[in-house]
Amino acid sequence: MNTTSDTTSNRLRLGTRQSRLAMAQSGQVARALEARHTGLSVELVPIITRGDVEKGALAEIGGKGLFTQELEQGLLAGDLDLAVHSLKDLPVTPVPGLEVAAYPRRVDPRDALISNLAEDLDGLPADSLLLTGAGRRQAQILRRRSDCRVGAIRGNVDTRLRLWREGGHAGVILAMAGLERLGLDGIPAHPLDPEIMVPAPGQGILALQVKEGSRAHALCAALNDAETAQQAAAERRIVAALGGDCTLPLAAWAQHRQGAMRLLAVLATTDGQQVAQGEGHGATPEAAAETCLAALHRDGAADVLKALGR
């Protein structure tokens, strides 16, 4: 049912990166807000972030926070009312003065193998070259298939698909969420078992970030999904506890099962040779994260972190 906004303005300025995927998911949020609040108009404000123009590996040029800084500055300055982020790009350390008002319902968190050669990692020929920009994916690919190779790439979904096609490589790994939000058809996308290729913390989740105490908070909060918010909290507690950021080769995936939460996490070196895996359960995100972290440490997380230079 629609609700009527009691704000003095009927317009929100939504900051978004300029990539096709970012514009698509921000447009979906804008339409959801307008549908929820009668008379509200949401304007998309495209922003070029440093991460969109800098070249090189993210870990070497500043991490995935490079995709959020300009948007956050716009919020703090009052030039934007809200920003939409892919949660896996948003650093776990909060920015003073800003908060996440809502986590809309999560979409498919799985990774997908885009390939004409196989429908899963096990079906690929030996010495196959797979493309990915994530150390987490590289680690889990090589853990499963040490006889394969991984090529590092960056860029938006269209760029990665083009590099795969033009290079004649065995495949490229992309997030199912991005493929779904773009409505891409006609590509050989094969969802990977999340027990084997464990997703990134926050994959498939959007974060609606606002200025603390702003009028936009209540408007955005109407889109919050409680289960998604709990999954986000549990997965990001793993990242924070390990002193990591979005470039750490770390996977974490929370699910709700029969009123409780199951949390699976994997920390590995990018060559897949050193791996710590843990599983936790609990009635709350905090309890699930605590038991998962204990299992990770029993399985050698400290040694993996040392090997990663952390």
CATH fold field value of the largest domain: D-Maltodextrin-Binding Protein, domain 2
Number of helices: 11
Using the CA coordinates, give the radius of gyration: 19 Å
Structural class: alpha/beta
End-to-end Cα distance? 49 Å
The ordered string of helix (H) and strand (E) elements is EEHEEHHHEEEEHEHEHEEHHEEEHH
Q: Estimate nothing, just give the exact number of structural domains.
A: 3
CATH-defined architecture of the largest domain = 3-Layer(aba) Sandwich
What is the overall silhouette? globular
If you average the pLDDT, what whole number results? 91
Q: Give the strand order, joined by hyphens, for the main sheet.
A: 4-2-5-12-6
Structure summary:
This protein is 34% helix and 25% strand. It is of the alpha/beta class and 310 residues long.
